[in-house]
Amino acid sequence: MKKLIIANWKMNYGPIRAGGWIRAFRRERLPKDLDIAVAVPFVSLAAARASLGRASIPTLAAQDCFWANEGAFTGEISPTMLTEFGVGLCLIGHSERRANLGETDEMVARKAAAAQKAGLMPVICVGETAAQRKRGEAAKVVRSQVQTAIAEVKGDGKAPLVIAYEPVWAIGTGRPCSPLDAKEMHEQIRGVLRKKYGHLAEEIHIIYGGSVDTRNVAEYMTTTGVDGALVGGASLDPRNFGLICRAAVPA
Ligand code: PGA
Question: How, if at all, do strands 162-165 and 228-231 pair?
Answer without folding.
Answer: unpaired
